[in-house]
Automatic annotation (TrEMBL):
One of its GO terms (molecular function) is sigma factor activity. InterPro entries: RNA_pol_sigma-70-like, RNA_pol_sigma-70_dom, RNA_pol_sigma70_r2, RNA_pol_sigma70_r4_t2, RNA_pol_sigma_r2, RNA_pol_sigma_r3/r4-like, WH-like_DNA-bd_sf. The keyword Hydrolase does not apply. Residues 130-181 form the RNA polymerase sigma factor 70 region 4 type domain. This is Putative RNA polymerase sigma-70 factor. Coiled coil: none annotated. Residues 34-97 form the RNA polymerase sigma-70 region domain. It holds the Pfam family Sigma70_r4_2. Belongs to the sigma-70 factor family. ECF subfamily. One of its GO terms (biological process) is DNA-templated transcription initiation. It comes from Pseudorhizobium banfieldiae. The keyword 4Fe-4S does not apply. Gene3D superfamilies: 1.10.1740.10, Winged helix-like DNA-binding domain superfamily/Winged helix DNA-binding domain. The lineage of its organism: Bacteria, Pseudomonadati, Pseudomonadota, Alphaproteobacteria, Hyphomicrobiales.
Length: 186
């Protein structure tokens, strides 16, 4: 059976073919999955241009690492999506969302305005309220993380990018901050 005759959902066979150096297999994977992979990266990065760049880099990684794929450890689709997701999170974490394009500067200004809005929501709380007191007792980064998540509606990945912290650290700080808030409010 030639690669052109393979069902489009047989990504494992296509990855094995990539490992053997068959470029048509990589093209077939791209044709089948690129649209969804760009959408995944764009949900994480919130920018189409960076999402496309991430997917391009991911396909280079798929091509060079296809021999490492082991179908007994998981699905081919999961392996491919993990490469894109991890690459997008690395870009977010590394702060590569900053470009010198004017539109990007406007986006940064909007983000600063959003942060001011989020912090002003905390400041607008009654200074004598228990919530204001408990939030004030938190470390600044934990407080910012909680406010970004619960007032701004940002995901943990977006917060990690904004605070320039690893995703795991961000999640831990938010979890610990919420635990401290619950304890303080009790």
């Amino acid at each position: 059976m030639s690669l052109a005759e393979l069902p489009t959902d047989d990504l494992a066979v296509l990855l094995v073919a990539c490992g053997r150096g068959e470029r048509s297999a990589l093209k077939r994977i791209f044709d089948v999955e690129a649209g969804r992979l760009i959408a995944l990266a764009e949900r994480i990065l919130r920018r189409r241009d960076l999402a496309e760049e991430v997917v391009q880099e991911a396909f280079l990684r798929i091509w060079t690492s296809a021999r490492q794929f082991d179908g007994s450890r998981g699905s081919a689709r999961g392996w491919i999506y993990a490469i894109v997701r991890n690459r997008a999170l690395n870009v977010l974490r590394d702060g590569r969302r900053e470009d010198t394009v004017e539109e990007d500067r406007l986006e940064a200004l909007r983000e600063d305005e959003q942060m001011e809005h989020i912090l002003s929501a905390w400041q607008a709380l009654d200074r004598n309220s228990r919530l204001h007191e408990c939030l004030a007792a938190l470390d600044d980064r934990k407080r910012r993380g909680i406010l970004l998540a619960y007032v701004g509606g940002y995901t943990h990945g977006e917060i990690a990018g904004r605070l320039k912290l690893p995703l795991g650290t961000t999640k831990s700080w938010i979890r610990r901050g919420l635990s401290a808030l619950r304890e303080c409010m009790a």
